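fyi for ur records
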Amino acid sequence: MSRALAIAPGKGPMAGGEYAYEVLNLADGRRTAQDIRNAVSATYGPVQLDVVVEYLGALGSIRVIEAVR
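which gave:
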């Protein structure tokens, strides 16, 4: 059974979808998942690294992004 990705609303002026969209915007091939988590947390409040990793994995599975090695 799969579970829904739980990217909770942020505390800043943007929340919900914008919050997840920011994770996608920051996935530029140079930043690590930790870097992305840190940047999003600085803007929106605490974000768990495993949630960001899972979201990036989901984006990768539908070929929106791909891993850079």
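The chain has a mean pLDDT of 82. thats all i got for now
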